[in-house]
Amino acid sequence: MVPQHRAESPALPRGAAITLSALVLLVALAVSAWAWLGSRGEVVPLGPSESPSSEAPTSAPTSTPVPPDRATVAGTVTVHVTGAVGVPGVYDLPLGARVDDAIAIAGGLTPDAQESSLNRAQVLVDAQQVYVPVAGEAAEPAAGDTAGGGVPGLVNVNTASAAQLEELPGVGPALAGRIIEHRGSQPFSSVEDLMDVPGIGPAILEKIRARVTV
Q1: Count of structural domains within the chain
Q2: N or C: which terminus of the chain carries fewer CB neighbours within 10 A?
């Protein structure tokens, strides 16, 4: 019987075997790395500027403030200073200012001013006219003029002199003095406020109502 010989696979050269083993190892490492990165599933967060829901900030619309009317500014009164003063005109003064302050801001009295007819301690009210007469001028203005400031032809009980108040029916020197004293601390806001003056009752008020204003 003829002995049989097994065919043997030709052996790879040593260098080729090493190279093949290195390639297999690199492929295995690459597959492992890919699998590891895929399993993590990390999501890189977007920055504030990259966020799809971020919106550009909008600034609130601005408006130019409208300056208030001078007559409605809290804490001030607007008066008209006229007559024998240095610079007649319309002036704004602090609330609680007096006739003396109005004369001062209007340049003071002129040399021919008749100061005796003024109550320089009187508290000013808004829209009041401070009239300074000249020496020799009649104590009570002619018809159609403003008596102490106010409505033409009427006596303004907030600004009239003692002589002008005494021209009213039923008002003598004592009562005129009490009217001036009262308005110095609390100006009259209506004709009916005259009832707060001692000595003025309903009868006197009805006599003078048509001839006075505030």
Answers
A1: 2
A2: N
